[in-house]
Structure to design on (403 residues):
């Protein structure tokens, strides 16, 4: 790698840090010839449940599997409607569709980029009614049941779960958390009077261990977390062809198990996760200070009730494309999460949304820029990023009062 380039993330540095332990853990699996399930998977499930502070973690094949299984096991039914946000990775809505439901979007809050409780409430008030007999929320135009809401804890910061919880309670909706970017993030719940970790608030939650995540495998991997033993049991069956024991199938399921070699890798890496999250928070604070006085840049807001784990550090500027091009010329890699909101994707034309349906998500998609963020990011690298942004702002942007 060109040493002058500042990478977007640096998985390589992590691997070097623990190469011996990783090779040993992988070697143990090779020698056991147990490539499916086994003690490494069970160990990881135990460690991850402990990390999240929940009763059960069930290892599955990916974050997408995790979300699909969490939805099905929680009771989302064929033909239901499930509410989520348009500014997320498509896996969120794919999982809803794959669970047999129809995704419905509500816009996000402009300051946190996460689901807006106000918009969620407005949607339910204007489009749905609660059936007096069944107590189920029904979508008035179609008569379909609205059964769940999927807040996404985007970039490592949790959505406002007290507010979403109050609305979900009022309408009898299940909450399934998309925590795929939020390993270890926490939320201060005024209702419960304590800090709660991502993956412990909803009926179930989904995590991804895609390699670039705060906790990443060396391939595909994911987990469902829950405090509900019945959901945990159903997820275990769903991931393994609906089997309750070998060749006894309670239902049709999927091939969605957590690979044993990936579990062995995760068992080594999870020991570092608290430390890495701390370092990410420190890096975020350093960026906040360095970028504070650069005028057209908006740094991420962390409300008092949130403790982000900064999977991504995302700034905003109206000159995003120009800035991204400039940083590239300076050898600074950046990312866009995400450039096109889901309702504007070709894949979702049939849902009937149009440009203008979700103005906040649409605006954010044009203004967001993810800066390099990883635990071993150095002070010098961050200073270079900040200097480059300052240079860009001085050289290319008109002073505030000029057109
Ligand atoms: C918000 C969100 N949801 C779901 C997923 C799906 O996870 P996976 O790629 O492990 O299937 C991801 C992964 O990128 C994600 O970022």
């Amino acid at each position: 790698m060109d040493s002058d380039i500042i990478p977007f993330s640096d998985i390589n540095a992590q691997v070097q840090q623990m190469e011996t332990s990783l090779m040993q853990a992988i070697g143990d699996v090779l020698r056991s010839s147990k490539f499916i399930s086994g003690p490494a998977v069970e160990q990881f499930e135990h460690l991850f449940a402990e990390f999240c502070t929940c009763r059960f973690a069930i290892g599955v094949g990916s974050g997408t599997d995790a979300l699909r299984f969490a939805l099905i096991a929680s009771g989302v039914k064929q033909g239901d409607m499930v509410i989520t946000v348009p500014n997320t990775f498509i896996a969120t809505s794919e999982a809803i569709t794959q669970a047999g439901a129809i995704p419905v979007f509500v816009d996000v809050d402009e300051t946190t980029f996460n689901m807006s409780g106000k918009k969620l409430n407005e949607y339910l008030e204007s489009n749905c009614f609660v059936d007096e007999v069944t107590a189920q929320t029904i979508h008035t135009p179609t008569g379909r049941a609205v059964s769940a809401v999927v807040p996404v804890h985007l970039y490592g910061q949790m959505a406002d779960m007290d507010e979403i919880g109050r609305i979900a309670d009022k309408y009898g909706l299940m909450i399934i958390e998309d925590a795929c970017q939020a390993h270890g993030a926490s939320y201060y719940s005024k209702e419960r009077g304590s800090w709660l970790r991502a993956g412990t608030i909803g009926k179930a939650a989904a995590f991804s261990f895609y390699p670039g995540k705060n906790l990443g495998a060396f391939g595909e991997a994911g987990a469902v977390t829950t405090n509900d033993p019945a959901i945990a049991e159903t997820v275990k069956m769903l991931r393994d062809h609906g089997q309750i024991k070998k060749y006894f199938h309670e239902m049709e399921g999927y091939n969605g198990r957590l690979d044993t070699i990936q579990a062995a890798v995760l068992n080594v890496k999870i020991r570092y996760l608290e430390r890495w999250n701390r370092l990410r928070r420190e890096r975020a604070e350093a960026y906040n200070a360095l970028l504070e006085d650069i005028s057209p840049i908006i740094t991420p807001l962390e409300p008092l009730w949130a403790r982000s784990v900064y999977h991504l550090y995302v700034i905003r500027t109206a000159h995003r494309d120009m800035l991204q091009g400039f940083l590239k010329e300076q050898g600074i890699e950046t990312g866009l999460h995400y450039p096109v909101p889901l309702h504007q994707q070709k894949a979702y034309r049939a849902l009937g949304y149009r440009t203008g349906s979700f103005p906040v998500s649409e605006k954010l998609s044009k203004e967001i820029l993810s800066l390099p963020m990883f635990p071993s990011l150095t002070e010098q690298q961050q200073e270079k990023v900040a200097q480059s942004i300052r240079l860009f702002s001085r050289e290319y942007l008109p002073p505030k009062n000029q057109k």
User: Anything to note?
Assistant: The mean pLDDT is 96. The pocket of pyridoxal-5'-phosphate is lined by residues 62-64, 67, 88-89, 91-92, 152, 178, 180-181, 208, 210, 222 (CB under 6 Å). The two ends are 41 Å apart (CA to CA).
